[in-house]
Amino acid sequence: MHGTELLKGTTLSDRPDLEQDRRTWQDAYDRTPLRDVDFETMSGIPVDPVYGEGPNPGEYPFTRGIRPSMYRSRLWTMRMFAGFGTASDTNARFKEILRNGGTGLSTAFDMPTLMGRDSDHEWALGEVGRAGVAVDTLADMRDLFAGIDLGHVSTSMTINGPAHIIMAMYIALAEETSVERSSLSGTIQNDILKEYQAQKEYIFPPRPSMRLITDLIRFTATEMPRWHPVSVSGYHIREAGSNAQQELAFTLANGFAYVEAAVAAGLDIDDFAPRLSFFFNSHSDFFEEVGKFRAARRIWARWMKERYGAQDERSMLCRFHTQTAGVSLTAQQPEINVARVALQALAAVLGGSQSLHTDSFDEAMALPTEDAARIALRTQQIIAYETGVANVADPLGGSAYVEWMTDEIERRAEEIFAHLDQLGDGSILEGVYAGIDNGYFVGAIADSGYRFERAVNAGRRIVVGVNQFTEGDHPGDRNLLRIDPQVEVDQLKRLATVKQARNTAAVHAALSELAIDAAEPTANVMPATIRAVHALATEGEIVAALEAVFGTYEETAVM
Amino acid sequence: MIQPPLRIVLAKIGFDGHDRGLRMVARMLRDAGCEVIYLGLRQTTENVVAVVEQEDADAVGLSMHNAQHLTLAPRMVAALRNADLEVPVILGGVIPDQDVAPLMDAGVAVILGPGSSAEKVVSAVRTAVASRS
């Protein structure tokens, strides 16, 4: 089934089918432009683009990678996530990234924005501009991207509950600056299911939230072909306490749920599935992580083809961003986190990630300082340019252990899919809803987290610097990032000024129209949302208008 | 004589959704025989005070990960004292070392950082409760 049986003495010439496979792969490889570097070891030994047997990289089911040449053509994107203070502060940081040759921007929003509330909401006190940038109205979006040509950058926006509102602001800004919608390129996370399961940044109940997501998928499929409308994210599931197989299975199940919802809304799978992407965690158990990434590609390809009938091969590709495990960072002896991050990043690269964020060593204590973020980026650059691992696709493929681990993680994930399929009476979408309603996801994640916690407590699992090797910590002399409280004062002034200057009647009219469209399940909320943000309705006002129709989600508190 | 079990209210105030730490602490305390009143996410200071009063709780545990501890923890202590509730406030989560002194000055009883063991959590809560009664 995989390379393992072939390693026991079979050669290519004994298997004409494999020879044919290899020729197909070679043709595809030969057509791909490569980076202008020497693909040889440090000692001058030339190396092949891939070793071992098929299925080859770039071939179904893509266990060995999504492209025939993998990192020989293009290294993974070193996408570092940033956002702080007011929109103008973050804009200055964006421009610096672009000046330094970056073409991709990645936006972190503050908690009130992520929760769909304005900076003047009573709960926002102490949160405005703290963990990301505050965006209340289109005016903030103008400041955030001032002087940046939206037609020529790729923008990633990490937001979920109110994603369609932030998307509408970005589209409205493009209109104001005469950039065609169709030329907008980027990703919005827009993955609400994992919010109920893990990250908890939800607003509306699951079903109306899914409607907002399918509306955006439909809108981008027709109007914004270069946009990725959903980044299905396991990262937060893992951070909340899950194990590797749960992270993988819950994430892919959520992906299946989005596919089922969009198909049920009348879309053709091959019209939107090529624009779905994924986001995984890379944790500390090295081979388990590599197996997880390989299994992710194989499972997604098989399910898309066999269960959902995708025809376009691009619909079967599990493309993913990876971030190292923030939860594995220790506040004790924080410098040693650099080593943890390097090993986790290496697993992500050997697992074939398309893009990677490396955490900073000081993130167990605060948002990273600039120096710490630079070391994290340099860690990726060492892997990319010094270690030679980018020369060969799937270099661990064919290892009996890695192939076994890939199969085993896949088997365990399939057990979870079977459970959800049964919960949903033959629908993964309904199974995911049921699992949210009955506390399955939250409970399973907490059980795994507690299992780990108890093992650490009992000393059966060693965390270096925490329950062993604890000497050498110097808590006194740490340099941590502090956010100036003036940011909050400035943002509140800004919001008050915008509210005073706008046409209130136009805002109310736009919000009423939006509420009408929201109440009509066959309407798409995007056009009315775009009109509302043009009228300078705030994010919080738009959320309130929708809550009146959709309701508000509250979690049943279970420890 | 058998002591009644210690009763503790656990909550997160405001928007922050990082509830892994709070859940883990809830289970540690439960397994150590405490009665845990788990309120979970998106609580208000006022709501926590009301629950402490209704449930006759011995302690309040808050978890904070988004740098809002300097605002919210002193406010919780003040709200409890205004209601004549002398229960200790125990704070967990991501709290930089330099913030420990101002928080203790504001009346926070114990700060439990990341990596605290179950034994440490349970004994810190018991000690804090014992020193108030």
Report on this model:
The complex is a heterodimer of chains A (559) and B (133). Helices cover 48% and strands 7% of the residues of chain A. Chain A has 559 residues and is of the alpha/beta class. In chain A, the strands form two sheets. A five-stranded parallel β-sheet of chain A has the order 1-9-8-7-6. A four-stranded parallel β-sheet of chain A has the order 2-3-4-5. Chain B has 133 residues and is α/β, with parallel strands linked by helices. Chain B contains five helices and five strands. Chain B has helices spanning 20-31, 45-55, 69-82, 100-105, 118-132; strands at 7-13, 35-43, 59-64, 89-93, 110-112. A five-stranded parallel β-sheet of chain B has the order 2-1-3-4-5, with helices on both faces. The chains are: A alpha/beta (559), B alpha/beta (133). Chain A binds chain B through residues 111-112, 114-115, 117, 123-127, 130-131, 199-201, 239-241, 327, 330-332, 364-367, 446, 449-450, 453-454, 456-457, 463, 466-467, 475-476, 478, 480, 483, 554-555, 557-559, and chain B through 10, 14-17, 19-20, 23-24, 26-28, 30, 36, 38-42, 44, 66-68, 70-72, 94, 96-98, 113-115, 117-119.
